[in-house]
Specification:
Blueprint: E1 2-7, H1 14-23, E2 27-32, E3 44-47, H2 67-77, E4 81-85, H3 87-94, E5 101-103, E6 111-119, E7 135-142, E8 146-148, H4 151-159, E9 163-167, E10 178-182, E11 188-191, H5 209-221
Parallel strand pairs: 1-2, 1-3, 3-4, 4-11
Antiparallel strand pairs: 5-8, 6-7, 6-9, 9-10, 10-11
Pfam families: GATase_5
GO molecular function: glutaminase activity; phosphoribosylformylglycinamidine synthase activity
Protein name: Phosphoribosylformylglycinamidine synthase subunit PurQ
Length: 222
């Protein structure tokens, strides 16, 4: 699997994401945000966490206007895989690749701690390595992780089995305690928790590693 990890000014989890994908067996290329094309043969685009462009305006809003954003949108629209983590999730909502919006945490504080998640669906290449209903621990580090969506949109997510993860218990005010959602074709995942920070025993946990292994195996066998 060929993966491209995008770096914006202010990204700080791009290397971590690249390492996690590499260890899962992907061939990883780092892509600067000013590039206007992805490497040939890219299967997955990974949009990392951090504070792209200092989180000015809205988190991810400026990054969504970068030259690479057009190539990212085309990749997703033709059925390519996309993973957006934390700030990357915010970028994907700003691009319209995922529904909803990420708002300020209800406690108005930055959250940085391990979070317990429920695996809501295993019907995706991102989550197939887990068990439905399994509880995993993945770190969070966000100030604007409060996922909000209108009632009609929430119903579509629920009816389409597109909620990937929920917090157990809720931590930031997200509607339905949602921590991650999938696109209609199930090839785009946005999530606020950081699986790349839980993919090595030396980092204190490995619950995130299954996501990367599952994704690489799913893409290879697609």
């Amino acid at each position: 699997m060929k993966a491209a990890v995008i770096t914006f000014p202010g990204s700080n989890c791009d290397r971590d994401l690249a390492v996690a994908l590499d260890r899962a067996g992907a061939q990883v290329t780092r892509v600067w945000h000013k590039h206007d094309a992805l490497p040939d043969g890219t299967d997955l685009v990974a949009v990392p966490g951090g504070f792209s462009f200092g989180d000015y305006l809205r988190c991810g809003a400026i990054a969504a206007q970068s030259p690479i954003a057009g190539a990212l949108r085309k990749h997703a629209n033709r059925g390519g895989y996309v993973l957006g983590v934390c700030n990357g999730f915010q970028v994907l909502t700003e691009l319209g690749l995922l529904p909803g919006a990420l708002m300020r945490n209800t406690g108005l504080t930055f959250l940085c701690k391990p979070a317990v998640l429920n695996v809501v669906t295993t019907d995706s290449d991102f989550t197939a390595g887990y068990g439905k209903g399994q509880r995993i621990t993945i770190p969070v580090a966000h100030h604007d992780g409060n996922y909000q969506i209108m009632a009609e949109g929430l119903a579509r997510l629920q009816d389409g089995d597109r909620i990937a993860f929920t917090y157990a218990p809720g931590i930031n005010g997200s509607v339905g305690d949602i921590a991650g959602v999938l696109s209609e074709n199930r090839r785009v995942l946005g999530m606020m928790p950081h699986p790349e920070r839980a993919a090595d025993p030396a980092l204190g946990g490995t619950d995130g590693a299954a996501l990367f292994r599952s994704l690489v195996n799913g893409v290879v066998n697609a």
